[in-house]
Write a structure and sequence with these properties.
The protein is an alpha/beta fold. It folds into 2 domains: 2-132 and 286-315, Medium-chain alcohol dehydrogenases, catalytic domain (Quinone Oxidoreductase, Chain A, domain 1), CATH 3.90.180.10; 148-263, Rossmann fold. Helices cover 28% and strands 25% of the residues. The protein is built from 8 helices and 16 strands. Strands 3, 5, 6, 7, 8, 15 and 16 form a 7-stranded mixed β-sheet that branches. α2 (126-146) crosses α3 and α2 (126-146) packs across α7 (269-281). The two termini are 16 Å apart. The mean pLDDT is 95. Belongs to the zinc-containing alcohol dehydrogenase family. Keywords: Metal-binding, Oxidoreductase, Zinc. This is Zinc-binding dehydrogenase. Residues 8-314 form the Enoyl reductase (ER) domain.
Length: 317
């Protein structure tokens, strides 16, 4: 079968012919129907700092996976061949994320621990389910599980791209007042259409709003520092984006304001289920850009250049 191999930093993805996987005990084989792409894929290709979490090379990238089970490993009883499933990349198995700890979804078939699977609800497309595995789950987890957001609170969101648009819609659906930030006029227009209270190109423009919580979906150092300087005293900044792998903090903002900076990594199967429920209800309807599996390398380059509208998903349906 065909798969896209990552071999090293700043090396192009290589289309490889590899053997179809078999399901070890506790695992299933999935016929991949859709696989999402995100900025962490750009990070892996361009930043050597990511090599510390890559288990092997070559490795099949792709951590946002949705498809159909074609084989069950020994001991798997809660799923059946033919089930439509998505993979929680930070699931409870402890086996690590696909595309980093093991071969992922940029292939015709892949394996996943049964413990990390979430059934795709009837009527939800594979492309929506794939996007929900990371962009949906990660954005939701940052706001509600880590950030502890509650209805009526004021929440700032930095970066209204693949993650931010999910988070914004989920927040509005759950009664939050959202203040959206992006450097793209198109993204700000989208934020307004999705229900943002106000939009701006810098989070510092909302200093007077006394934001309870700020989610940094960009993570480009200055965005994090400005978020800490803007959030109200005793407020929280949740860092999700990894645009830069290092940042510096103003100690005055941090200590004197008793502000908190929290990291948010992925999410849970429960977060995914909540996201799928919002999708089914029509309250979460993210913009997706579709490509074919053959276009995955070009799609990552588009992400790097900032040319993608919404969330990018490769389709094999």
């Amino acid at each position: 079968m065909k798969a896209w191999h990552f071999t090293g930093t700043n090396e192009p993805l290589i289309e490889a012919e590899i053997e179809e996987p078999k399901a070890p005990a506790g695992y299933v084989v999935i016929d991949v129907k859709a696989a999402g792409l995100c900025h962490s894929d750009v990070g892996v290709l361009r930043d050597p700092g990511w090599m510390g979490i890559i288990a092997k090379t070559p490795i099949v990238m792709g951590h946002e996976i949705a498809g159909v089970i074609t084989e069950l490993g020994e001991g798997v009883t809660e799923f059946a061949v033919g089930d439509k499933v998505a993979v929680c990349p930070t699931g409870p198995s402890g086996e690590g994320a696909p595309g980093y700890s093991r071969d992922g979804g940029f292939a015709e078939k892949t394996t996943a621990p049964a413990a990390d699977l979430v059934k795709i609800p009837d009527g939800l497309s594979f492309k929506m389910a794939a996007a929900g595995t990371d962009a949906g789950m990660t954005s939701y987890h940052a706001i509600f599980t880590i950030g502890g957001a509650e209805a009526g609170q004021k929440v700032g969101m930095i970066g209204i791209g693949g993650l931010g648009q999910f988070g914004l819609q989920a927040a509005v659906a759950k009664g939050l007042e959202v203040y959206a930030v992006d450097t793209s006029d198109h993204a700000l227009k989208l934020a307004q259409e999705l229900g943002a209270k106000k939009v701006a190109q810098s989070i510092t423009e909302f200093k007077e709003e006394e934001l309870d919580l700020i989610i940094d979906y960009a993570g480009f150092d200055t965005t994090t520092r400005e978020a800490l300087a803007t959030v109200k005293a005793q407020g929280k900044v949740v860092l999700v984006g990894m645009g830069k792998l290092e940042t510096t903090l103003n100690v005055n903002d941090f200590i004197l304001g008793e502000r908190a900076v929290l990291g948010s990594n992925g999410g849970t199967k429960e977060d995914m289920a909540d996201v799928y429920e919002l999708m089914q209800s029509g309250k979460l309807n993210p913009t997706l850009t579709e490509i074919t599996f053959a276009e995955i390398p070009a799609g990552i380059e588009q992400l790097e250049r900032g040319e993608v509208v919404g969330r990018l998903v490769a389709i094999r349906e």
